[in-house]
Amino acid sequence: MNRPAALNRTLLALIGLVLLAAGGFALATHFGRLHVLDPASSLVPGSTAPPTWVFYVVIAVAVLLGLLCLRWLAAQAFRRPKTVAWRAEEVDGATELDSATAAAPVAADVEGYDGVRSASAWLSGPRDRPELFLIVTTDAEADAGAIRARIAEHALPRLRQALEVDELPVRLEVRLTAKSGARAR
To answer: Can you give the pTM of this predicted structure?
Structure first.
């Protein structure tokens, strides 16, 4: 179970329900369907302004809330899968391989393909059932279908052979860039 995603969905659902309830309450009160508040009366008692420190507290809370919202929004942009260390026990010792190290040659292979500007690859999961996450940024005029086919025919079989696995699920994201021309390295 992906706990951060579940928490994210739960928080979004709760915030959505609170906003819907507040909007429904405001509309029902405004149109006279709900008689909890008198539409003609003022919202707060009295006509004097609150002390100055109240404004500073409200501003500080609003800024803090805004920064938390920006942090939450930034966390939604891209979540990189967690890398793992694979350990293979041998008779004469053990070999340990970081999954990020195993994925680096795939990214290097894909970056060499025509039309590809950059590639990032991550392997996640257990050693006997790894998953490949691949992000490929291409030129605007590049043939994404041909690049995908080249990955499936060239890079993936090589990685499956290196990892000694028969199946390798892949999550491929192809990003098109507006820039064209030769890439700078």
So the answer is: 0.53
